[in-house]
Amino acid sequence: MSLLEIASAAHLTGTLVLALFFLLLARHDPRPYLRSWTAAWVAQALALAVLLASFEHDWKMALSLYLFLEAVHGLALIAAARSYAGGPGLGRWLGLLALGLAVWAGVGPWLLPEERLLHSVQFVLLAAAYLVAATLLWPLREPAGMGLRLTTNVLGLIGLLYLQHAAVFGLAFRSEASGLVYFEVAPFTVLFLQMLLGLSMLLAVTEAAQWALSATNTQLQEAERRLKALAETDPLTGCFNRRVFRELVDDVRAGSGNAEGVVVLLDMDGLKRINDRDGHHAGDDAIQRVAEAIRRHTRTTDLVVRWGGDEFVIVIPGASRAEGEGRRLQVVAAILEAGFSASTGLAAYGPGADIMSAVEQADRAMYQAKADKRSVEAG
Predict the structure, then answer these.
(1) Dihedral sign for Cα atoms in the order 71, 74, 80, 83
(2) If you write DSSP's letter for every residue of 166-215 in order, what string do you get?
(3) Where would a tag sit more exposed on the chain, N or C end, judged by fewer CB atoms within 10 A?
(4) What is the maximal distance between C-alpha atoms in the chain?
(5) CATH class belonging to 3-222
(6) For residue 262, how far is the Cα from the chain centroid?
(7) All structural domains of the chain with their residue ranges
(8) Model confidence over 251-310: pLDDT tens digits?
(9) How far apart are CA 89 and CA 282, in angstroms?
């Protein structure tokens, strides 16, 4: 067995390993560019097997099949690059290109009986395929990871190597001995670079899977955040609901006992008259405007809860009773500016005063304030 046949057999062995690995990977990964890369390595392995058979039997038909399979290898690399870049596959051009290459493969061994010249033309076609694939991936090198950068660079290197092969084979076809050593070691150089290409493709696939997983996790976190917001907020006013208040109560009760603050309970005046006179849509609009007035005079650390109907609870952590009273008056004034009025009650919570007890106390104070208003209006 000649050195050329040994090199081709080694090339076939390495390509078979890549083809089998990509076949296993493609079974569990539906990405189009991965399927195209798999097809490229399978075609390359078949082409090399046919080439070895042509050494033994000197079949021109075997050479024709080899040329066609190598062309399929190049087409699959271009299709993968276009798919990875987010563009369409070869589409309608695939059939035309395959037809042209099939014609070339069929007539090539008879038009160019000198095998070195035949291989020279074939190397030009392979060089074009590799360089086109590298060009398509080149704009994606910087944003992508090491795998795609290495894949792009190696594609370009193999393309240039095939151009060199084409030049050497083309210039040496007249001389039987010219370039003999080069011809025998050329498959080893291609094997080395293609093995490196296969590993870089695997790295690119792994990186793409990691990015896809990261993007999916981000989407899940965003969906979870939205669901949490929907579960915690009142859809009409955007204020928190009682669920959040219960969580606050649990946190305060589970604390060290030093948590303190003020609770303000607020109830709109005259909402029933608005609903009866202008309809429930006007009532909902009034509730929204009151909620907005409350939020304008609360801090981000305060908790504004729609308690139910036209009632709101404002929890002001860390505030003294005097500070809470000042904030309560600001909120009442803001509601008056919005064109409405409200009755309020205030109570403090802290060591020795449970927050729920403070809510009940503020509720009684609010109803007393409302009763006082009615007495004044009736008098």
Answers:
(1) negative
(2) HHHHHHHTT-SSTTHHHHHHHHHHHHHHHHHHHHHHHHHHHHHHHHHHHH
(3) C
(4) 124
(5) mainly alpha
(6) 45
(7) 3-222, 242-378
(8) 777 765 567 899 999 999 988 889 889 898 999 999 999 999 998 888 888 889 998 889
(9) 57
